[in-house]
């Protein structure tokens, strides 16, 4: 089954997606990571997305949906969509895309974290720009400061993880992405779960695994 992780920036979607990918074989489609790769390669898409990313705005829906279409893994392995969809228009496009590919509706999981905690997480985040792996200077530190445990290369602080841009990104989440809660929760024909993602990383992973294992049980009926 395909799964959507949605929630504010800093809610821990990437952290959990990486754990499930490495340990449980899920495929991860992170639109943030894909956009940063496009930027790094200076592609047309990367250049078009750059000003939006820099100011903490959402990249236009048509560019994002096209990028996801190109990067959709083949059916057969469960995909975690991490940071996508972020608008109702993207959610509708994803439903159509998956149905056209003969896949069912995705399981939508909302990561809830209070705003003050999100700010603390984003301002202390360190990222491996080569792999997308994230750390936190207090909550999940690497063994050596600013050095990745896996590849030994440098970690960076993202240029959009600064106080002013974080503030704007959280506002954007509240205005443009929170309507997804109603989109996913109101539909009785799909699975939806809200999790308290303010708890420690291992606790959140355990709850996710429990929920995903239960997906083999019958769907709730209308
Ligand atoms: P998102 O992908 O939702 O933007 P990340 O997975 O990048 O969020 O996490 C944001 C920051 O918070 C990172 O520094 C990460 O190490 C840290 N983090 C993630 N999950 C937790 C958690 N459950 N408790 C404490 N810190 C966390
Ligand atoms: P993230 O790594 O998920 O925090 O995303 C970083 C930035 O990439 C966001 O602030 C947006 O500018 C852009 N972005 C990532 N995913 C999306 C999406 N699904 N829709 C629009 N913009 C996105």
Write structural notes for this entry.
With 222 residues, the protein is an alpha/beta fold. It has nine helices and seven strands. The protein has helices at residues 13-24, 31-40, 44-55, 61-70, 88-100, 115-123, 163-177, 179-186, 201-213, and strands at residues 3-7, 27-30, 79-82, 107-112, 125-127, 134-136, 192-196. The strands form two sheets. It has a five-stranded parallel β-sheet with strand order 2-3-1-4-7, with helices on both faces. Strands 5-6 form a two-stranded antiparallel sheet. β5 and β6 form a beta hairpin. The longest helix is centred in the C-terminal third of the chain and has 15 residues, at 163-177. 32% of the residues are buried. The protein binds adenosine-5'-diphosphate (ADP) and adenosine monophosphate. Adenosine monophosphate binds at residues 9, 31-32, 35, 52-53, 56-59, 64, 83-86, 90, 160, 169. Adenosine monophosphate is lined by residues 9, 31-32, 35, 52-53, 56-59, 64, 83-86, 90, 160, 169.
């Amino acid at each position: 089954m395909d799964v959507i992780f949605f929630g504010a920036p800093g809610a821990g979607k990437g952290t959990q997606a990486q754990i499930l990918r490495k340990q449980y074989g899920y495929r991860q489609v992170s639109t943030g990571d894909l956009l940063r790769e496009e930027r790094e390669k200076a592609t047309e898409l990367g250049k078009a997305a750059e000003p939006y990313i820099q100011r903490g705005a959402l990249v236009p829906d048509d560019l994002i949906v096209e990028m996801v279409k190109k990067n959709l893994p083949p059916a057969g392995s469960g995909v975690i969509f991490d940071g996508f969809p972020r608008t109702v228009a993207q959610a509708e496009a994803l439903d159509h895309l998956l149905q056209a590919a003969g896949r069912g509706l995705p399981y939508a999981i909302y990561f809830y974290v209070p705003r003050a905690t999100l700010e603390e997480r984003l301002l202390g985040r360190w990222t491996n720009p080569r792999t997308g792996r994230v750390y936190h200077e207090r909550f999940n530190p690497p063994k050596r400061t600013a050095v990745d445990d896996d590849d030994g290369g440098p970690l960076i602080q993202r240029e959009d993880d600064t106080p002013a841009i974080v503030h704007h990104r959280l506002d954007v989440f509240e205005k443009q992405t929170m309507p997804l809660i109603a989109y996913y929760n109101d539909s009785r024909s799909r699975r939806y779960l809200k999790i308290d993602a303010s708890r420690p990383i291992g606790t959140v992973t355990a709850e996710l695994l429990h929920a995903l294992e239960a997906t083999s049980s019958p769907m709730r009926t209308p």
